[in-house]
Write the structure tokens for this entry.
Amino acid sequence: MSFDWMCPEVNKTFVKKLAPRFVEMHHREIEERARLLQGLQFDRDAAVARIQRNIAWEFELTKLPAFYKDVPKIVDRVYRTGGK
């Protein structure tokens, strides 16, 4: 016999709000990593490769997330603006 509190119901509207925030969080993290690598004098291609390797490692037990493909675009934006 299960208890009500053991099977929580998640509000559907909350789940819809949460999904884009997950991607937004990772885009910000990619930007921060790109700024750090730029400050460490990594060239653009090396920064993209390193960030993509890190993401692949973080998600090695699941499929690669959709934002994995966005890494070059985000790194380009950071390097173009000088890390600001």
Q: What stands out?
A: Helices lie at 12-39, 44-58, 71-81. Residues 13-81 form one domain. The longest helix spans residues 12-39. The radius of gyration is 17 Å.
